């Protein structure tokens, strides 16, 4: 429960800091996108895909808490490993969010002073992963699931696995949004960045062997 409270505090703080300490000022861009693409059936889609569907997801990813709450098994080395994974996930997600925020604040400052903005964030954890915040979040949930595995409740990882599948889909949506909405110059840079950088798991930079092959694709991108 202490780990859950740490996770909740980190995520809540990150949300309000991003929204400049306001509540409900902006709608999630994914919901806005679905509404624009489905104007006539949005009320139905909103109820099932946004409202109703998230409830079993929430129950699923918290199944490990059910296991641990009704268990009297002594704390073991496997539990210690699960705790370490949870704390590592929280730390990675926290660092990634802070680095992203600093990047955005720096570009805001540069814009106000008429300086050239930094096109792509590829320093810190973002040098080794395109979505280190997502990786940290997933590491957290799989660390929590390990508590159940240690108790023999393997079924409790089903919700965690489903959550990973959903986040994989969100990752694809996020990158598509980048390539659809960014300027041609930034999109070309991001394609290069994507070629040499891991999606989730922080890994050493890949070679640039395929980057030049994308040059024709860059030139085909529409102008701003």
UniProtKB/TrEMBL annotation:
Highest taxon, organism lineage = Eukaryota
Keyword Transmembrane helix (UniProt): yes
Q: What are the entry keywords?
A: Membrane, Transmembrane, Transmembrane helix
Query: Which spans are transmembrane here?
Result: 42-65, 154-173
Residues forming coiled coils: none
Listed under GO cellular component are: membrane
PANTHER family in the record: 3-OXO-5-ALPHA-STEROID 4-DEHYDROGENASE, 3-OXO-5-ALPHA-STEROID 4-DEHYDROGENASE (DUF1295)
Protein name in UniProt: Steroid 5-alpha reductase C-terminal domain-containing protein
